[in-house]
Amino acid sequence: MQTFGIDIGFGFTKVTNGHDWRVFKSVIGEASDVQFHEDLIRGKEERPTSLHIIHESKAWFVGELAERQSSVRSATLDQNQLMSRYAKTLALTAIANLNPDGEALRVVTGLPISYYRRHKDELTELLMGKHDVTLVDAHNKHTEVSFNIEKLRVIPQPFGSAFNMMLNDVGKVQDPRFLQEKVGIVDIGFRTADYSVCDRTHYSERGSRTTEAGIAQAFKIIAHALQEKSGVHVELFRLYDAVEKGSIKIHGKTYGLNRIKEQAFTQLAGQIASDVNSLWADDWDIDHIIVTGGGGAALLPYLQPLLEGEIIPMDSHEDPRLHNVQGYQKYAVHLWDKPSS
User: Fold this and answer.
1) Shortest CA distance to 107 belongs to which of 164, 147, 145?
2) Which ranges in 39-193 belong to alpha helices (H)?
3) What string of pLDDT tens digits covers the 341 residues of the chain?
4) In terms of Cα–Cα distance, which of 170, 154, 173, 163 is closest to 198?
5) Per-residue DSSP letters for 225-276?
6) Rounded Cα–Cα distance for residues 255 and 246 (Å)
7) Is the CB of residue 209 less than 8 Å from the CB of residue 280?
8) Is residue 197 within 8 Å of 284, Cβ to Cβ?
9) Beta strands 28-30 and 58-62: pairing type?
10) Torsions phi, psi of 254, nearest 5?
11) To pair with 319 at 20 to 30 A between CA atoms, which of 24, 39, 44, 300?
């Protein structure tokens, strides 16, 4: 039996079993018949990942492989579409790459707060039970992987980061302040921003909300400016590296992005800070604030002067996209795999 955390985001899909992890873009495309010759599909994490999957007689390219190779590829910023068309394929690809062949799995995942009630049962139905998946590598080697998700818990998404800081690798409390304090969580993803209050480990409905102030909002501003200058519409999921680098090359011409990035990030940070400060106006007794998520890490320098409260610094050596999924896995251990004393 293994415990897994999985985070199916609009921007990236993340998975960990506590020992290893995978991250890839939440993009899917039809698998083409053309030959491709890549030894490994590698991201920045240098984790070898098979992103060609066959499930229920349908073949897909996923993530960066779909971005590079699929003539018909898609990503979504719509939660209903994410559930109905993408979630199962993304989740099974992620889990299968950690090689749980023949294993019974216990899984924790999360949903944005505003979508939690609406999609919790749907996501549970999609993922629970036995799954048979075929992974195809760059040399057309087929590997059959079967696993059974026997237990699954869906929690409000931002609590993953709280659990990541609260619990150690064997699911025990390592930071007692979360048992004693009131903590606000600002979780900025690709499409959504989640704000939640963890009041001595209890979820506060009053202090929790999802908005559409994800980093994609800033990316749309950047993409629009690029289209005006270059005449090319750049898909949002192709802007990650360019925004980080500060420039993009289109038809051989380099376009600087730092000025429009500063404007877009400053505007988005102001919107988020205004939302948070207004939402938590009655929660003036919050002890600390956690800013998490890939978007949170990018916006933190712009947000920090604007938020009313003391911010707990996240581990700068960790990939910020993994904070929630690592917390999910630790919570799975806490629930189902407690070591004997």
Assistant:
1) 147
2) 63-69, 79-81, 87-96, 116-127, 159-166, 177-180
3) 899 999 999 999 999 999 999 999 999 998 876 554 455 455 444 566 788 999 988 999 999 998 888 888 888 888 899 998 999 999 999 999 997 888 899 999 999 998 998 999 999 999 999 999 999 987 888 999 999 999 999 999 989 988 998 899 998 988 887 788 899 999 999 999 999 998 887 888 888 999 999 999 999 999 999 999 999 999 998 999 999 999 999 999 999 999 999 999 999 999 999 999 999 999 999 999 999 998 999 999 999 999 998 898 777 777 888 999 999 999 999 999 765 44
4) 163
5) HHHHHHS----GGG-HHHHHHTEEEETTEEEE-HHHHHHHHHHHHHHHHHHH
6) 9
7) no
8) no
9) antiparallel
10) -90, 130
11) 39
As a whole number of Å, the CA-based R_g of the chain is: 20
Q: How many CA atoms lie within 13 A of 232 on its CB side?
A: 14
Torsion angles phi and psi, residue 28, rounded to 5:
-130, 150
β-pairing verdict for 142-156 and 21-25: unpaired
Give the whole-angstrom CA distance, residue 28 versus residue 74.
Answer: 6
Q: Within a 10 A sphere around the Cβ of 245, how many other Cβ atoms? A: 11
* Closest residue by Cα to residue 260 from 280, 230, 293: 230
Residue 167 CA to residue 189 CA, distance in Å, equals 22
Query: Residue type for 54, please?
Result: I
The 10 Å Cβ neighbour count of residue 36 is: 13
Who contacts 122 (Cβ-Cβ below 8 Å, separation ≥6)? 83
Residue 190 Cα distances to 248, 292, 340, angstroms: 20, 12, 39
Query: For the whole model, what pTM was predicted?
Result: 0.88
Provide the residue type at 241 as one letter.
D
Token pair 């690592």 in the structure block, residue = 326
DSSP 173: B
